[in-house]
């Protein structure tokens, strides 16, 4: 397979015994044509793997020298997404490596083609960077307080980071923004003073949350059995991402919108305890919630 290497060789600074070690990070594209319209490269590093805790993020120009984030020892996920000037993702990927590397090794990340769905509304896109939302806080334990304002993809980001289009609506499963709706208007389904939108198009957890933020909400937080029953009806029996996760602290589950709800409806054998799974979905077929890898592609429900 032909691959194009970016004009980017990232030097990671590995913190070890009061000294730093440079960790070469080479980013390539599986599709050379995807780089022709590249406007920005968004990079992240997560401690614990591709779905771990975000410790570094930065948006950089393709022709600019790579970033020099400071990270610690152990398993880390290195992710990148290339966007065009209209904030549409072209290629993205993530690779996990244990640090420190052996002498002569480097982190090699190959980015794959993705659907070019804009990451934010056109009015919020400036030269490939979305300006309408903060991507979430970078943990300061490894990387200090550096925050370049890029989207947290989970990068996940797994994974997958395309999020919104202005003309895609909830009715057809798209991830949409109704640019003409007043801020307080509900363009979805109302329940108990809240507005909900079911999106049948499947996305990873981080992409789904970014889409909900663009809709002026968050992934749904479920306060009790009645709300859960309403949301399940809205989803029509489909499995969907919720806002519950343990991305910050392992086995400590919190809602992405900061809700204090203690309601839990775990399915059989859940939460699974899988150290690579950090995001919670509701699976009506098993009549319970399940802990899954955040990179899985699922439908989702937004709430505001």
Main sheet attributes: strand count, strand direction, barrel closure: 8 strands, mixed
Coarse structural class: mainly beta
What's the number of structural domains? 2
Strand order of the largest sheet: 4-3-6-7-8-2-1-5
Give the termini distance in whole angstroms.
Answer: 44 Å
Q: How many separate helices?
A: 3
Shape: globular
Rg of Cα set? 19 Å
Beta fraction of the residues?
Answer: 35-45%
Quaternary state of this entry equals single chain
Would you identify the regions where 5 or more consecutive residues have pLDDT less than 50? 1-9, 133-181
SSE succession: EEEEEEEEEEHEEHEHEEEEE
Mean pLDDT across all residues, rounded? 75
What's the helical proportion of residues?
under 10%
Total beta-strand segments:
18
Description:
The chain has 3 helices and 18 strands. With 304 residues, it is mainly beta. It folds into 2 domains: 140 residues; 133 residues, Mannose-Binding Protein A, Chain A (Roll), CATH 3.10.100. Strand 9 and strand 10 form a beta hairpin. The N terminus is likely disordered.
